[in-house]
């Protein structure tokens, strides 16, 4: 169902004022985790002002260590809904199980399946039945074929509103958090009709690499980007080193407009 043979024309995922897979570049931005009302509203106002179409923020965080900040859970979802009302942005948040899914559908527009759950097939089936668009990240060490099969799990439940997100894969290289597989963008767009976006934040783990990789992703034909932005990255409870400051994000958006106009 997700293949080009099954459908020739590109799928456009529409949420609120956002269209992913259409003509323009759709940028989703916001903090890794929702931390407080002040933090989220400030981030939302700022990314909206800079031209983002969707606000991201984690309320259920799948952290490597059980002692790291795990997210505000339902309170975080409530804050996302409040930020959406104030700014008009669509919202996306990660769901990690049935509990978080049942709560998230009440508050946000798009459900994110994180890299660690890309092959959680029961969860894929559940989001497939949720009636909400899904942002499906590529697994930490998933092949393109496995990633597309994960999308097939969602679509086979009747939900074709899927945004694929390349977020870097595990390789032998240790000097970046992951290795961004940019060739996956044109490759997957040739194999599938689904929109493909790129997450240069988790791909690199390093704020100074986010801009160059974001520009490269747009040049490679990505339909959009997922970028972590924090009002004060030094104080972030999660992924501060890869989060852009509001000023850096606004400057990057200007550059991206120029790249998008050239491709
Ligand atoms: C995230 O988007 O905050 C996240 C946890 O990403 P990933 O699943 O790609 O690691
Ligand atoms: Mn993160």
Automatic annotation (TrEMBL):
GO BP, one annotated term: aromatic amino acid family biosynthetic process
Domain DAHP synthetase I/KDSA: 17-257
Chain's gene name: aroF
A GO molecular function held by the record: aldehyde-lyase activity
Native species: Desulfofundulus thermobenzoicus
The keyword Kinase is annotated on this UniProt entry: no
Superkingdom of source: Bacteria
The enzyme's E.C. designation: 2.5.1.54
Transmembrane segments: none
Name assigned to this protein: 3-deoxy-7-phosphoheptulonate synthase
Transferase found in the keyword field: yes
Keywords: Transferase
């Amino acid at each position: 169902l997700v293949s080009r043979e099954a459908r020739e024309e590109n799928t456009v995922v529409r949420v609120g004022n956002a269209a992913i897979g259409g003509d323009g570049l759709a940028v989703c931005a916001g903090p890794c985790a929702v931390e407080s009302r002040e933090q989220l509203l400030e981030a939302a106002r700022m990314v909206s002002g800079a031209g983002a179409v969707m606000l991201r923020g984690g309320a259920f965080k799948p952290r490597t260590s059980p002692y790291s900040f795990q997210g505000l859970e339902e309170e975080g979802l409530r804050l996302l809904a409040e930020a959406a009302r104030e700014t008009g942005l669509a919202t996306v948040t990660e769901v990690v199980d049935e509990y978080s899914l049942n709560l998230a559908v009440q508050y946000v527009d798009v459900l994110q399946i994180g890299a660690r759950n890309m092959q959680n097939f029961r969860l894929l089936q559940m989001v497939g039945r949720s009636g909400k668009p899904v942002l499906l990240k590529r697994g930490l060490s998933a092949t393109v074929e496995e990633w597309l099969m994960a999308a097939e799990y969602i679509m086979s439940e009747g939900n074709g509103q899927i945004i694929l997100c390349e977020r870097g894969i595990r390789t032998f290289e240790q000097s970046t958090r992951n290795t961004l597989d940019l060739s996956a963008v044109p490759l997957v767009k040739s194999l599938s009709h689904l929109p493909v976006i790129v997450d240069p934040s988790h791909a690199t783990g390093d704020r100074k690499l986010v801009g160059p990789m974001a520009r490269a992703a747009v040049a490679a034909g990505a339909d959009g980007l997922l970028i972590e932005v924090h009002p004060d990255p030094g104080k972030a409870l999660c992924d501060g080193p890869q989060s852009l400051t509001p000023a850096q994000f606004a400057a990057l958006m200007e550059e991206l407009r120029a790249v998008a106009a050239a491709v």
